[in-house]
Amino acid sequence: MKNKKRFASNSIRFSVFDREKALNIFFVAGAPDMDTSAEVLRKLPSCGCDIIEIGVPYSDP
């Protein structure tokens, strides 16, 4: 996990210093279902997504 965090930090840092744009995607896990979510998440990097933020749905009582 530590290497993955370092990779994300480096990607953001390089984008900022090089003044490049980064595509950040927020994705709600499990929408519309787990199988589709997994398929979409696997394909996002090859579609040019630089950062993937995965939200976990919850209900607020």
Helix and strand topology:
Blueprint: H1 2-17, E1 24-28, H2 34-43, E2 51-55
Parallel strand pairs: 1-2
Q: Based on DSSP secondary structure assignment, what is the total number of beta strands?
A: 2
Shape: flat
For the report, how would you describe the main beta sheet? 2 strands, parallel
Helix coverage percent: 40-55%
Uncertain spans, ≥5 residues at pLDDT below 50? none
What is the ordering of alpha helices and beta strands?
HEHE
SS-derived structural category: alpha+beta
Looking across the biggest beta sheet, what order are the strands in?
1-2
Structure characterization notes:
The chain is of the alpha+beta class and 61 residues long. The protein has helices at 2-17, 34-43, and strands at 24-28, 51-55. It has a domain at 21-61. It has a two-stranded parallel sheet. The N and C termini lie far apart (32 Å).
Short account of what is shown:
It is built from two helices and two strands. It has 61 residues and is an alpha+beta fold. The chain has a domain at 21-61.
Keywords:
61 residues; alpha+beta
